[in-house]
What we know:
Elements: H1 3-7, E1 10-11, H2 21-31, H3 33-36, H4 41-53, H5 57-60, H6 64-88, H7 90-97, E2 102-108, H8 114-128, E3 136-143, H9 148-161, E4 169-175, E5 192-196, H10 199-205, H11 207-220, E6 226-232, E7 238-241, E8 244-247, H12 248-257, E9 267-278, E10 294-303
Parallel strand pairs: 1-9, 2-3, 2-5, 3-4, 5-6
Antiparallel strand pairs: 6-10, 7-8, 9-10
Helix pairs in contact: 2-6, 4-6, 6-8, 10-11
Bound molecules: S-adenosylmethionine (SAM).
Amino acid sequence: MNKDELSNDLLPFTTNDSLEPIKILDLIEINLKHILNSPELQSFIQIVKGDLYNRDYLSAFNSDEKRFAYVARWTPARALSYSSLFSSLKPIKALLQEPIQIKNVLCIGGGAGSELIGLSSVFCRLKEYNSSSSSEIHINIIDIANWSTVINHFTKYIKENWLYHGEKLSTNFICDDILITNTDLQLNNLDLITILFTTNELFTEKRKETIKLLQKLNDNCKSGTLLLIAESAGSYSHIIIGERKFPIQFLIDTILVGKPNENNGVWEIVNSSESCWYRINQKEVEYSMKLENMRFFYRLYRKK
Ligand SMILES: C[S@@+](CC[C@H](N)C(=O)[O-])C[C@H]1O[C@@H](n2cnc3c(N)ncnc32)[C@H](O)[C@@H]1O
């Protein structure tokens, strides 16, 4: 592990380059007021928990009640940690800070809104220092479950409350299976792709197609594109190649970066952590439910 990795094993609760955690939680509390007050919320959270435990990912998000329960329970801590992560990873912060260009982002499996909130928190904070700059961010979110209501509500709130010029941020929600979609995702025009807490699901659903998706990124993304993959630390499933068992993360690295020590792939790893903590400072924030600390694995790749 190099020095850079070590310093990324503990993310700050908040940074100067992202909005205050309290503003992030306000967004969620205000937009989910009715859900958070619903007497049925806890029972739906239990159903989603059970589906996720059984790795039955498709049924975990197959109704509005379950999707809203997921957002109420899991999105807040995720959004806080992504806000800290995006502002702590220098290449991502630099991308969001650049004052002139239009940035195109694709969030795979980002329907529950955590990536949207995390990206917006950093983009909007950095924009405050230079609000008349021409830079814009277009966030494309593709998800197999229909999260359009959640994304539309969060986008509207962000444009109206976090930005001086709301038109500088836009989102496009695509309800489709990333592994078989015919939608033109304009991979050659993307500056950043995120696959956060979603690779396990993709590999569980369709292993061959998931490998093909990574190969598609190899073939189509432009040089300089950033790709961020994160997953619960230690949660990766294993694959068997020949007689040996490997973590899926090994397979992902081999496809993207090349064989170990040869680095003959088309991506390079620019930042990573095998186990990174994000701890909630409970004294600084309040939320209707307990906000849990997070521990995850991540890799930030850059296309050569
Ligand atoms: C565990 S959730 C993670 C949500 C979000 N990325 C986060 O970090 O909070 C996984 C997401 O991936 C989506 N998903 C699963 N399989 C998918 C597929 N084949 N195509 C697109 N989205 C998929 C699910 O619907 C769900 O929204």
